[in-house]
Amino acid sequence: MEMTSAVWSFALVVGVLTLTPGLDSALILRTAALGERRRAWGVVLGIQTGTLVWGTLSSAGVSALLTVSRVAYETLRWAGVCYLLWMGVQLLRARHAEPEGEDRGTGGGLGEGWRRGALTNLLNPKVGVFYVAVLPQFIPRTAPHLATGVLLTSVHVAEGLLWSAVLVAFARTLRSWLRRPSARRLMDRVTGTAVIGFGVKLAVSD
């Protein structure tokens, strides 16, 4: 497979994956819709950091341990389950007594968002398994494995950033509605329920 063909083919595959609604999209939309733009971009950057780490580990052969070590996979899976359930409960218990301005009271919003996005991605073993199963198929035999793997992962990251920009822009249209505390509580409950659902799904999957 030629390099150009490999890049375009991989871009198509991960493009479909990026556009598929999931936990990442839910977190970005919820954070941006509540007016926390800095924190929303922190979530975006954290998610893409996790993607880059998984792609690099896969290219180096490290994440293949998840497919051969049951203990490694189960440990990471249950860590992810606990984190998602905890985050979902926190969202369900969130209180909004008054409307908030743009990033009101979130001086460290970018860092906090990055932590949440990175942990959500890195504690999901299915992302690692995806890269172990899919990424090697797009690396030409004569190409340097690590460098090419990182290049392809960067394509995924770039697509993720572009789609996230669309989500953040769309979420801003909801802000007038979300100025009402009741609407903000509804947003948190919907997102919290979705996050818990992803956690339960990860718990029962094999």
Automatic annotation (TrEMBL):
The chain crosses the membrane at residues 6-29, 41-64, 122-139, 151-174. InterPro entries: LeuE-type. The keyword rRNA-binding does not apply. It holds the Pfam family LysE. Coiled coil: none annotated. It is a multi-pass membrane protein. It is found in: Cell membrane. Keywords: Cell membrane, Membrane, Transmembrane, Transmembrane helix. It comes from the Bacteria. The keyword Heme does not apply. Its main location: membrane. This is Threonine/homoserine/homoserine lactone efflux protein. It comes from Kitasatospora paracochleata.
